[in-house]
Amino acid sequence: MADFAVLDPVTERVRQDFAALAEIRDPDTDGWTRTVFSEPYRASRDWVRRRMADAGLTVHADGAGNLVGVLPGRDPAAPALVTGSHTDTVAAGGRFDGVVGVLGSLEVVRQLAEHDLRLDRDLLVIDFLGEESNDYGLSCLGSRSLAGELTAEHLDRRDLHGVSLAERYRGFGLDPSEVLASAGRFARRGLHRYVELHIEQGPVLEDRGVSIGVVTAIAAIRRLVASFAGRPDHAGTRPMGDRADALVAAAEAVLAVRQEGCGAPVHGVATTSRIESEPGSPNVVPGLARMYAEMRSVDDGWLTEAQRRLAAEIGHRAADHGVTVDLTWSSDNERVSASPDVHEVIGRAADAVGVSWEPVPSGATHDAVHLARLCPMGMIFVPSRGGRSHCPDEWTDPADIAIGIRVHAATLLELDRL
Ligand code: HGY
Ligand code: MN
Ligand code: MN
Ligand code: MN
């Protein structure tokens, strides 16, 4: 590892890229909003596509809506190296989540050319479609498709306005049948290793004063929709002791979700993101309510047990209020481990660059979860200021991004020889 060139990013050029992409967002919301299928997202991908070409990549959009930039290697028949991330955001999100992996990889490509370093293998730099979770409860649309995990059932899902996911693809110029067909084509290409550069989105690296996180595993995500049915009544006349208030049962379920997360002995979290009630009139005791939550952990055992405990607790509390509850669980992704050989190369690359690094689990999900089904994968984390992400305050210092790019370059050069 010690003999390869350690490339030094041109931070001003990288900074300009981040500034240019950050200009493309929904002007009417706080922070950065480029949600999948939106007009700002469409515009941002045109920009990314041009920057990929400027960097010397041969660019095409695959059937699943991913932007794929190819840097030909000396041996086109060899299984390819794959990297990339995403440039869509959550609503009112930040400007580094995903973007670091796409723009950082473009800087690596430019550096390889400027140092006359030719890889043996083709390098695919991919801006995956729609990594963030969306109205269909599905994250990682593009990478999920390539892994063959996006199904016809998913395409039939409808959002709150009754619009199917298939129609959203069509509105974005994509043919849903092509989306489903993209899996086989990509896998047949022959894939060697996948590595993704990403912000940590948590506080660990900053708290420990460490420059690089080498991801050990990516947490499983279980999602819950709890539907409560009580009895609507006149709010002014129904005695407090004789109500079946669906919203009170849902509110107690919110506290039960938090209690589970706070009780996790290992990395485990639980979050309620939304609660609704009907009819929502001030003078009617809510007869119906719904609560949306998720639980995550890299420890499948804890997650399964926590799910079971939570279901029982929500049921008991609802029954205490004379309310019935229906729980619908779904899995956004299973826990996935990084491959030991990629993990080891990233650690040695950080050593060669001369920066500190530590193994860290990822509570956030990433496209790497789905690429892991296609080839061995690893992830490189750079610190998030204050551990904040998915908000306008999301920030990673340019100097930290430059370190991440150097480790990313060193890792790719070494994986190319693996
Ligand atoms: O939800 C996540 O963890 C990711 O940021 N989409
Ligand atoms: Mn991300
Ligand atoms: Mn995200
Ligand atoms: Mn992610």
From TrEMBL:
State its Enzyme Commission number(s).
Answer: 3.5.1.87
Reply yes or no: does the keyword Hydrolase apply: yes
UniProt GO molecular function: hydrolase activity, acting on carbon-nitrogen (but not peptide) bonds, in linear amidines; metal ion binding; N-carbamoyl-L-amino-acid hydrolase activity
Q: How is the cofactor bound?
A: Binds 2 Zn(2+) ions per subunit.
The entry marks the following residues as binding Zn(2+) 2, namely: D97, E132, H390
Transmembrane segments in this chain: where? none
A Pfam family matched in the record: Peptidase_M20
Class of enzymatic activity (EC top level): hydrolase
Q: Which amino acids does the record list as binding Zn(2+) 1?
A: H86, D97, H198
Residues binding allantoate are: R223, N283, R296
UniProt keyword annotations, A-Z? Hydrolase, Manganese, Metal-binding, Zinc
Q: Which cofactor does it need?
A: Mn(2+); Zn(2+)
Gene3D superfamilies per UniProt: 3.30.70.360, Zn peptidases (3.40.630.10)
Give the domain of life. Answer: Bacteria
Give the UniProt family note.
Belongs to the peptidase M20 family.
Task: Quote the subunit structure annotation.
Answer: Homodimer.
Give the protein's recorded name. N-carbamoyl-L-amino-acid hydrolase
- Organism source for this protein? Amycolatopsis jiangsuensis
